[in-house]
Specification:
about 160 residues; Growth Hormone, Chain: A; elongated; GLUT
Length: about 160
């Protein structure tokens, strides 16, 4: 909690995703080269521990903060319910399918996770706003700014400045 408040939600989330991505690549390399170098088992073990650490720093807890802060009081319970359902449904799918995917892909099974983590990182980079220290209205304004054309946004800023004066 202290780290989240100090570093910010978005930066921790993206750092966690990038750490998990690098760990997934390291696991893939370790598994591919395991038959040639016995010490690659240690690389794979360290990569697994790092994967879990980065998950616990970013993508584990941060989405719950962000979902709670992206929605106003009215729709927040429904948004958290949908997020929880998606989280547990994806956990279930991964848990049920991992062995079959591992049998199919062999040592490259974690390359699939690396590719998905890259997509998640890019999505977070372009679409997820920083919510640390911002009210719901400020966060909603960030989304509105992205949707409005530049001319309209300039007119709104001019109007806001004239109201403050």
């Amino acid at each position: 909690v202290f780290l989240v408040e100090k570093a910010g939600r978005r930066s921790l989330f993206m750092a966690g995703l990038m750490g998990m991505l690098i760990s997934a690549v390291a696991m893939t390399v370790g598994l591919v080269l395991l038959s040639q170098f016995a010490w690659m088992s240690y690389v794979s073990m360290v990569a697994i521990f790092l994967f879990v650490i980065f998950f616990e720093v970013g993508p584990g807890p941060i989405p719950w903060f962000i979902v709670a802060e992206l929605f106003s009081q009215g729709p927040r319970p429904a948004a958290i319910a949908v997020a929880g359902f998606c989280n547990w449904a994806c956990n279930f799918i991964v848990g049920m399918c991992f062995q079959y995917i591992a049998d199919l892909c062999g040592p490259y099974v974690f390359a699939i996770f690396a590719a998905l983590l890259l997509v998640f990182f890019l999505f977070a980079y372009f679409k997820v706003p920083e919510t640390k220290g911002k009210s719901f209205e400020e966060i909603a304004a960030v989304f509105r700014r992205k949707k409005l054309p530049a001319k309209t946004m300039t007119e709104l800023e001019d109007l806001r400045h004239s109201e403050q004066a």
